[in-house]
Amino acid sequence: MSHTSRIMKKDFISRGCSITDLKAHLVLTTKYRRKVFTGKMIERLHEVFEDLLDKWDCKIVEFNGEEDHVHLLFQYHPEIQLSKLVNSLKSVSSRRLRQEFLPELERVYFQKKVLWNSSYFLASCGGVTISTLRKYIESQNSPISSLILAIHPTLIAIAIQTWGFSRLS
């Protein structure tokens, strides 16, 4: 087996009679786009998402975030109902963060048991190379407009309009 074949095989999921390589890019925003996440919260979210995705037989490819949103690039298999997976990611992570960071979250949300906005952005990664998405996620806090526009101008425009992301110069 060649070196290239071994590398490619790592990215594929083999189940029964199928071999797949499905990846999705999920963006979750905080309720009211409040700037609540600290570095420790982002690290904890990474752990929670990694643990939960493992239970769903999925895996994190890349994860990062800022004070008011997170990006999660993950690999999944075709049997997964993505809406149920996203609901699980949001509810479990919200519950865990409220348990572990209650004082910080109550300063922003008071007694409300909320963390995430009810909507989310989810896109398959077929139109963009994974390395482009990885660079984009890694570049959080770095304005790279050409990279964002390279992802998919229409999807980015919808995300900007829906969640109020600011345009990068």
Structural summary, described in words:
It is a single chain. This protein has seven helices and six strands. The chain has one domain: Transposase IS200-like (Alpha-Beta Plaits), CATH 3.30.70. It is globular. It has 169 residues and is an alpha+beta fold.
Quick structural summary:
This protein has 169 residues and is an alpha+beta fold. It has helices at residues 3-11, 39-55, 82-100, 102-109, 130-138, 145-151, 153-163; strands at 13-15, 18-20, 22-30, 59-65, 69-76, 116-124. The protein has a four-stranded antiparallel sheet with strand order 4-5-3-6, sandwiched between helices. It has a two-stranded antiparallel ribbon with strand order 1-2.
Approximately how much helix is present in the residues?
A: 40-55%
Number of strands: 6
Mean pLDDT: 82
If helices are DSSP runs of H or I spanning 4 or more residues, what is the number of helices? Answer: 7
Output the helix-strand order.
HEEEHEEHHEHHH
- Biggest pleated-sheet summary: 4 strands, antiparallel
CATH superfamily: Transposase IS200-like
Low-confidence stretches: 1-9
Indicate the CATH class: Alpha Beta
Shape: globular
Query: What's the CATH topology label?
Result: Alpha-Beta Plaits
Task: State the separation between the terminal residues, measured CA to CA.
Answer: 46 Å
